[in-house]
Structures are given as C-alpha cells and as structure tokens.
Amino acid sequence: MTGICEGRVVAVTGAGRGLGRAHALAFAAEGARVVVNDLGVGLDGTPAADSPAAHVVEEIRARGGEAVAHGGDIATTEGAASLIRTALETYGSLDTLVNNAGFLRDRMLVNLDEEEWDAVVRVHLKGHFLPLKHAAAHWRAEAKAGRVPAARIVNTSSGAGLLGAVGQGNYSAAKAGVVALTLVAAAELARYGVQVNAIAPAARTRMTEQTFAASMAPPQAGFDAMAPENVSPLVVWLGSAESAGVTGRVFETEGGRITVMDGWRRGPSADRGARRTPQEAGETARKLLGEAGEPLPVYGAS
Ligand SMILES: NC(=O)c1ccc[n+]([C@@H]2O[C@H](COP(=O)([O-])OP(=O)(O)OC[C@H]3O[C@@H](n4cnc5c(N)ncnc54)[C@H](O)[C@@H]3O)[C@@H](O)[C@H]2O)c1
C-alpha cells in the first residue's frame, strides 16, 4: 500500500475498536505497518472475553495491509515495554506511537470512590506515560547512534480535559494531565527527533453512543459527522513525516472540523512590586477579572 506513511511502523493503543480501530485502519491504508494493541476490556475497564486487536489485524490484512496484534495492558511496564518490543521485533523499527486506550467510570465527585479515581487516572495518564517512555528510550538510543528519527507521538486528550465535564472528575483530571504530559514530552524529546502532539476528539463509539445518543446518531443520508473515521486523517498526518515542525500542539477534531486549541496564556495582570494584604489581593483579583474574558463553560454545567 502506498501513502503518506509508507515505510513507517505505527503502534496504536486501544486499537481494537472505536477511534483506535479507525486510526489503525487509516494508518494501514496510508502504507504503515501497524501494531494493533488492545487489552479487550469492557467500557468500564473490567475484563472481557474478547480479542478485538486480532479482529482489526484481520481487517487490515484483508485490505492488503500489514499488521500484528498486541494484547498487553499499556498501563503496566511490561505491557508498554512489550508493545514497543513487538514493533521492533516484528518490523525492525518504530516511527509513530498513538496513545489512545482508555475507559470511563463516570460519577459525580461526591460519589466517586478511590478505586474509580485510581482506575481512570491510571489507564489514561499512566497508560500514556509508560508507552511514551519506552518509545522515547528507543528513539533516544537511535538518535545517540546517529540515526535521528522522524518520530511522532499522538496523545489522546478530550474536551473533558480541556474544559472539564460534569460527572467526569477522574477522567477530566487524567485528560488534562495528558495535555501537560504532551507539552513536557514535546519539549524534552525534540532533541531526539520526536514530535509530540495531542488531539481532543469527538466521535460515536461505545464511550459516547449512549450518553450522547441524540448528537451521535448517524444521519439518514449525507455526511456522518460523528463517525470515528473522521478523526483519523489528522492523527495519520500528525503521525507521518509530513507533519515536520508541528509539536506541542493540541487539536480538537470532530466531523469535518479541525481546531487548534489556544491553551492557557496570561490574561490581565498587575504587579505592584510589593506584598498585598488579602483585602488588597481581592480588590486586584476582582479588577483583573473584570478585564478578563469569560471562561468557556464546563461540559454538562447548567
Ligand atoms: N469517543 C469520543 O467521543 C471521545 C471523546 C474524547 C476522548 N476520547 C478518547 O479517545 C480514546 C478512544 O476512545 P473510544 O471512544 O474509541 O473508546 P472505546 O471504548 O471504543 O475504545 C477504547 C479501547 O481501549 C481499550 N483499552 C482499555 N484499557 C486498555 C489497556 N489498559 N490496555 C490496552 N487497551 C485498553 C479497550 O479495550 C477499547 O477497545 C480514549 O482515550 C477516550 O478517552 C473519546
């Protein structure tokens, strides 16, 4: 297969269904050899007797592409390390890592228990960090051996991580962490030839098809805006050598729309070169807030 990823080796986590599956198929269609990771868990992360990664590998091969399945848990050192090893042992290289795997345990904060907090923060945040770390160690070794790669990492945040979402305190915190991790990784890894960006997607998958049933339903005719396949082209481009020079950026992507997220930047500010009393600090804060724009609303806030 020919395309903008011809000759590249791409690992996609959580690629057995939903967005990850669409990314894996899209990378293969652009000529990449793909490591399709999926642990095959339920929507809440509980074990399920399923091997969705193997099905996606079959789909890619049926279309004439090359792929191999990996069934490890990417939030463990062994799962993350063996994902990278699978790429190197099967195809001899790794060019792109797409961190995508995850699950939800939604609850209002007052009802959210410690286990639900830990499980969601673990799968998204540690599940991004560990594959990133093991891929980066490989690319650093390559760069030090004089083979500076055109390596790419695409991380998966969420609107919940950028603006917050009611009922998703654990998920929003983890996905905000993914953005900060992306910025740090882009800064640290540039010297090794690695670019790191993040997307905040929206699409119809098992994660969204019930909660947002009305807005996710396919139309009777015309453009199916919420199909996960609409998100993948940007991910493929970010994961290709074509995206040279783009790093440390966050893109919202859904349907036919791509938006560059213009992240935290300093707004109105006042420095008087001396300590304030609490009352003076309050007066200054209120004055500055009067000059600042209104924040975008938290998803689901009434
Ligand atoms: N669907 C949306 O609208 C939307 C919006 C914002 C962000 N996201 C993010 O996009 C990513 C993909 O979500 P999706 O909607 O396709 O959901 P999905 O449930 O269809 O797919 C996620 C996949 O990850 C796998 N997985 C879970 N834990 C794993 C682990 N520890 N190791 C390996 N695989 C694991 C699951 O088995 C599943 O196949 C997630 O990070 C999600 O938070 C999705």
TrEMBL record:
Keywords: Oxidoreductase. Gene3D superfamilies: NAD(P)-binding Rossmann-like Domain. Pfam families: adh_short (PF00106). It comes from the Bacteria. InterPro entries: KR_dom, NAD(P)-bd_dom_sf, Peroxisomal_Beta-Oxidation, Sc_DH/Rdtase_CS, SDR_fam. Residues 263-302 are annotated as: Disordered. Residues 263-289 have a biased composition (Basic and acidic residues). Belongs to the short-chain dehydrogenases/reductases (SDR) family. This is SDR family oxidoreductase.
